[in-house]
Amino acid sequence: xxxxxxxxxxxxxKYNNEPCLVLESTHRTPGNLRxxxxxxxxxxxxxxxxxxxxxxxxxxxxxxxxxxxxxxxxREGTDFVFMDNETYDQVNVSEKSxxxxxxxxxxxxxxxxxxxxSEVLQVELPAHVILRITESxxxxxxxxxxxxxxxxxxxxxxxxxxxxFVNQGELIRIDTRTGEYMERVKE
Length: 187
Prior knowledge:
By secondary structure, the chain is mainly β. The chain has one helix spanning 95-98; strands spanning 2-3, 12-15, 18-28, 36-43, 49-55, 59-62, 66-76, 79-84, 90-94, 110-116, 119-124, 128-136, 149-154, 159-163, 171-175, 180-185. The protein has 3 domains: 2-62, SH3 type barrels (Roll); 66-124, CATH 2.40.50.140; 128-185, CATH 2.40.50.140. It has a 6-stranded antiparallel beta sheet, with no helix packed on it. Strand 3 and strand 4 (36-43) form a beta hairpin. The N and C termini lie far apart (51 Å).
């Protein structure tokens, strides 16, 4: 147990019996009213963003979260199978827990997994991954006057928008947080 004074960005608390990641915490002291903490947080099970006010000094249940790096091995039905590189233990992570990040994960890729006891709370990929384009229409020469984009299918099956000059078979860097094309990468 802690108090509202211990709220920091990155802390994980139990709110309405759900694990929530604190994104932002601001202490407010309006004129003649009591002080409070305005807290933005994300529910780690549903992914929904919440905003809540806590009275100053109110007790809050903080969760102990352990974070370790894992290597992605393969998909087994709807689960993603990861391996701890130190102990070689394997962990199954559901598609729901992976969220949108799962579409940018290829075999051998790394991810940081957060646990509360044995429950998977969150899976984070590196900020950028390099993937090969497996399917894309060829760009037409001279059609690059505007910032036009075209769809491209990556080796993981994800579809992203890329500029017209990017062709099939090329490596590109993708921002895993937004799912956007960043740049071409030389082999």
